[in-house]
Design goal:
3 strands; 133 residues; mainly alpha
């Protein structure tokens, strides 16, 4: 049985990724929220369109209908719970050593640099969402 509030399908996952991405060009408070999530994240869901990729950490992405009003909840939630949920919905993460890792890490760094975010130095993992059908 799924934990209460966790995303149940890829549509909900994609909605959360895109919500966080919208904050990238929103109000000052939204930009700050977006930046902090990216800066501190360890495990990221990657959504893509024909022209861009969007990154969102699992701890934000893994709860249904998440947005910046849930900041207090984010601070007490355990990312390992969302990681397991996302593993089951999306599949195996792309980790250091996988041939796709370097490309995704470079794209993540470029995404952060575009909005003057310096992420914490660490090895990240990525889930790559399948293209929308």
């Amino acid at each position: 049985m799924a934990e209460k509030g966790l995303v149940q399908n890829l549509r909900q996952v994609r909605k959360n990724v895109r919500t966080l991405h919208r904050y990238r060009s929103g109000s000052a408070a939204e930009k700050d929220f977006h930046g902090e999530r990216l800066k501190l994240g360890r495990n990221f869901v990657v959504d893509q369109t024909r022209s861009a990729r969007f990154f969102s950490p699992s701890k934000f992405t893994g709860y249904e209908g998440n947005d910046r009003t849930h900041l207090a909840k984010l601070n007490v939630r355990d990312g390992r719970v969302t990681d397991r949920c996302l593993d089951s919905l999306i599949g195996e993460r792309i980790r250091f050593g996988d041939g796709r890792y370097k490309r995704l890490e470079r794209e993540f760094q470029a995404y952060c640099q575009a909005v003057a975010i310096t992420p914490v130095r660490r090895q990240r993992t990525f889930w790559l969402l399948p293209p929308m059908s």
